[in-house]
Amino acid sequence: MDIGSFWATNMILITCLSTSLETVEVKGFTGKQHEIPFLAYLIHYGKLIKTLSIDIDSHDIANTQIYFEKAQILKTIKPASKKIHIHIS
């Protein structure tokens, strides 16, 4: 299974995205092929999300800037929630 295309094309709406999910915390983000499509799915369908906090993997100092740039891509996705704040650190 191609997990990236799964989240990009999956039309199943997980119930918590429209009824209860308000906060998402991601720790150790590296921008791997499964992370970005999954978070894009949450942003696109998460009607109640107020906060998406992304902590970049700080153990791999040589690639920290690359991880940060990949996380920035998520700010270009049209969110379902008008109240969402995406924090990258």
What does it look like?
- It comes from Cucumis sativus (Cucumber).
- This is FBD domain-containing protein.
- The protein is an alpha/beta fold and 89 residues long.
- It has one domain.
- It has four helices and three strands.
- Strands 1-2-3 form a three-stranded parallel beta sheet.
- The longest helix is centred in the middle third of the chain and has 11 residues.
- It starts with a helix and ends with a strand.
Average pLDDT over all residues: 88
The helix tally amounts to 4
Strands of the widest sheet, in order across it, are: 1-2-3
Q: In the residues, how many domains can be counted?
A: 1
Q: Can you give the helix content as a percent range?
A: 25-40%
In N-to-C order, the SSE pattern is HHEHEHE
How many beta-strand runs?
3
The largest sheet is: 3 strands, parallel
Uncertain regions spanning at least 5 consecutive residues:
none
Protein name: FBD domain-containing protein
Keywords: Signal
Signal peptide: 1-23
Domain FBD: 14-54
Task: List the topology elements.
Layout: H1 3-9, H2 16-19, E1 23-29, H3 35-45, E2 51-56, H4 64-72, E3 85-88
Parallel strand pairs: 1-2, 2-3
Helix pairs in contact: 1-3
